[in-house]
Input
Amino acid sequence: MRILHVLTSIDPKTGGPANVLARLARVQAARCGHRVCVITADDPAAVEVVTDEMREVGAEHLACGPMRGPFAAGRTTRRRIDANLAEGVDVVHIHGLWQHAPHSAAAAARAAGAPYIMRPCGMLDPWTLSQGRLKKRLFLALMARRHLNRAAALHYTTETERRLVEPLRLFPRAFVIPNGLDWEEFKVLPRRGEFRAAHRIGDRPLIVFLSRVHHKKGLDLLLPAFARLPDASAMLAIVGPGETGYIDELRAQAASLGAGERVIFPGMMAGRSRLEALRDADLFCLPSYQENFGVSVIEALGVGTPVLISDQVNICAEVAAAGVGEVVPCAAEPLAQRLAELLSNRARLAEMAARARPWVERTFRWDAIATQIDAMYEQVIRGSRSGGA
Output
């Protein structure tokens, strides 16, 4: 099968959609034997590592930037998409919504008669639509709704995401297929204590947040909740990339709450180092105002660390049903209360931790997820050939 993926950026610093697509493309090329091309609007120099990783397993990545303009257009994005379509593509998988590349790909696929699938990546959730509301409503009316409705299918990663988009009354068939983990990376875990030793944490209680450091992640809730913990020895690690100005604001907030010396900002951690941070945590916490899926939640569970997440993380229902973590309203008071209760209840943490790895291995291995995505592609391709797309 020949697959074309299009995303604005595959830079790991941009967060979940980039990291998910990079892994999916590698699995599709290396394990499924597909011919895979990924086109983004990145500056080639900024994503050399990702491009090389794809090339090693036979996937192609074309970075068409650097980006320009308010919609992050790449200089040669449309030209590269058209050239790929001209060579023959079975299906186009488009990721994202609010920038140039996804809509350039939708228009090009439509013109070439190729079926395309759109994965909104949470960008149609009510919280996201409320940010810059007027601009997004206008963009939906002028362009996005048309491209969404002409898609052969819409790909959601949780049932919650699909349900939240229902009020928009979009036409295409919906598929719900989650994101995955490369279980090979999680088979042999780092030795406990590496992250704690590097940051002189010792045996103190440790909460880890690992994600992009952004205002939507609920860190303005997590810091006051953490500062109220009865155990004044507890530590909080806020791990991930973010703008310097915002991180400085968080440092100042932690200091004003009297917790400045107990909150650390290790920056972005990838590969083995991120697993070391997650493995050494007593509890992983992600109190986001909006989270389409939450790959870091699954990664924490994959190393055996229980999670505490807000009810706005779209995978919260599955986490609660599996008994591998707990869910709280997206507010500081209940978050503070539940943090304190869990850190004082070692038996409860151990119970959730024991379920975590087996659940992730059963549910989120990329090889199984890739098979589900293949089945979606095959249905879309058959529909296109019969005139159903």
